[in-house]
Amino acid sequence: MSETHGTEDSGTVGYVLEMGALKRGKRSGWWIAGVKDPETIAEHSWRTAVVGSVLAMMEGADPAKVALLCTFHDTQETRIGDIPWVGRRYIKVAKNEDVTADQVAAAHPAVADGIKAIVHEYENGDSLEVLVAHDADKLECMIQGLEYLQQGYPAAREWVDSTRAKLKTPSALALAEAAQTMPIAEWQRTYLR
């Protein structure tokens, strides 16, 4: 094994280890809504990828591509944290593409190029897959807000309403409408009958 290859392997593993911090980082905007123990960034990203895949199937987009875009959409938060929208007006944050470039600087070139391309596309693209991925991010946030509402956090209503208003695809709007009237444990009722 060459020394360069070993360094690239270590850099790649370093990136993977850094992504583990997303499992511990909380989605801080929910604290504003009074949620004492909000979801982690990784929990949000995982369900965003699932929602994105579902929306992609409904919209005729590539589900694998949307899932990939959704998986990497918040990875920069290992370095900058989860800054709620109310806080963004007070601070200047590096572009996600710049943070990603730093994160993967020591990784294998194919990995670095691939991840940078995914993040760049999510941030700048205009394909159906990008539109669906952005809707998935908002729809997941809205659904999480509905769950927090049902758990007794009334201030989550602001997140539900504001994220719902930003949805664009017919499928995301339809699922948002359905989610508004569904209890969070509804999915298990079909198995209890």
Itemize the secondary structure elements and their pairings.
Blueprint: H1 3-19, H2 29-32, H3 41-59, H4 63-72, H5 77-80, H6 85-88, H7 96-103, H8 109-124, H9 128-150, H10 157-164, H11 170-179, H12 186-192
Helix pairs in contact: 3-4, 3-9, 4-8, 4-9, 7-8, 9-10, 9-11
Summarize the structure.
The protein has 193 residues and is mostly helical. The protein has 12 helices and no strands.
Your description of this structure?
The chain is mostly helical. The chain has a single domain, classed as Hypothetical protein af1432. Helix content is 67%, strand content 0%. It contains 12 helices and no strands. Helix 4 packs across helix 9. The termini are far apart. The relative contact order is 0.14. The mean pLDDT is 93. Its cofactor is Co(2+); Mn(2+). Homodimer. This is 5'-deoxynucleotidase. Its EC number is 3.1.3.89. It is an enzyme of class 3 (hydrolase).
Query: Low-confidence stretches at least 5 residues in length (pLDDT < 50)?
Result: none
Q: Write the CATH fold name.
A: Hypothetical protein af1432
Number of strands: 0
Order of SSEs: HHHHHHHHHHHH
* Number of alpha- plus pi-helical segments: 12
Structural class: mainly alpha
Helix content: 55-70%
**Straight-line N-to-C gap:** 59 Å
How many individual domains? 1
**Averaging pLDDT over every residue, what do you get?**
93
CATH superfamily: Hypothetical protein af1432
Basic shape: globular
Using the coordinates above, name the CATH class: Mainly Alpha
Q: What Rg, in angstroms, do the CA atoms define?
A: 18 Å
The share of residues in extended strands comes to under 5%
Annotated CATH architecture:
Orthogonal Bundle
Major sheet attributes: none
Protein name: 5'-deoxynucleotidase
Catalytic activity: a 2'-deoxyribonucleoside 5'-phosphate + H2O = a 2'-deoxyribonucleoside + phosphate
Pfam family, one: HD_3
Domain HD/PDEase: 37-151
